[in-house]
Design goal:
alpha/beta, 2,3-Dihydroxybiphenyl 1,2-Dioxygenase, domain 1, 2 domains, eight-stranded mixed β-sheet, six-stranded mixed β-sheet, globular
Length: 244
């Protein structure tokens, strides 16, 4: 396997909302983060599943991509990231699938990356990246104490072309097809990372991230937590399902 689902990135201009939802309510703990040209990013990890990354613009010419996204769509899911062991091989497979990647940058040995435009990523930007060494940094001072731990166990993504989307995520991005029927394909990667593709016709841009699901096997979510999570998620342009 050369590709693994690493994180779901969410663009927002209100980081405290993201910290409260994914940290205080859903138990995410600090993984890494820092400044990049034009934006700041921070990642939280969970017991299982991909990480959540929060992105916020910091100004200057390099912030344009994220500022345009927020101006057009508001806060919401920005991209899916896949870590790969050999980005050259991944780019070959992407092109063999009939897709020309954009934003290809292989100059930095610590972080080589490329992107699929949303029209090729079935409604969402897909980032593939080869990381040269691990990043560790201190958490931001405003990050709250994490709540009880949870599993980030499902990303549900609706697509207009289920067959082509399933082939992209399995043949190019190494997802293991677990279940399949006429309307649904579920794919998994190690450590509980799961995407469920659901057929829905005539979607703008060919797809839309429908919702994410978090589970807390050890204890039930309270009604107060569910209400709080719903309000915070709405401010982030996201729908969150809480399962026990």
């Amino acid at each position: 396997m050369t590709a693994i689902l690493d994180h779901l990135a969410i663009g927002t201009s209100a980081l405290p909302v993201g910290w409260e939802l994914f940290g205080s309510v859903l138990g995410g703990t600090w993984a890494s983060g820092g400044d990049s040209p034009g934006f700041w990013w921070g990642q939280l990890e969970f017991e299982t599943g991909p990480q959540i990354e929060l992105l916020t613009p910091t100004g200057g010419p390099d912030a344009g991509f994220l500022e345009r996204f927020l101006a057009t769509h508001g806060a919401g899911p920005h991209h899916l990231n896949f870590h790969v062991t050999d980005i050259e091989d991944t780019l070959t497979r992407i092109r063999a699938h009939g897709i020309e990647p954009v934003g290809v940058n292989l100059d930095n040995p610590g972080w080589k990356e490329a992107f699929l435009h949303p029209r090729d990523g079935h409604g969402i930007v897909i980032q593939v990246a080869q990381q040269g060494w691990p990043w560790r940094s201190a958490p931001p001072a405003e990050l709250p104490e994490p709540g009880p731990s949870t599993n980030f166990d499902l990303i549900v993504h609706h697509v207009s072309d289920l067959d082509r989307a399933a082939r992209l995520f399995s043949e190019v991005l190494d997802g293991q097809i677990e279940t399949i029927d006429a309307q649904t394909v579920e794919l998994s990667w190690p450590r509980g990372r799961v995407i469920r593709l659901v057929q829905e016709d005539a979607l703008p841009r060919g797809g839309s991230l429908h919702h994410v699901r978090f589970a807390r096997p050890a204890a039930a979510f309270s009604d107060q937590e569910r209400e709080r999570a719903g309000l915070l998620a709405k401010d982030l342009g996201l729908t969150v399902e809480l399962a026990n």
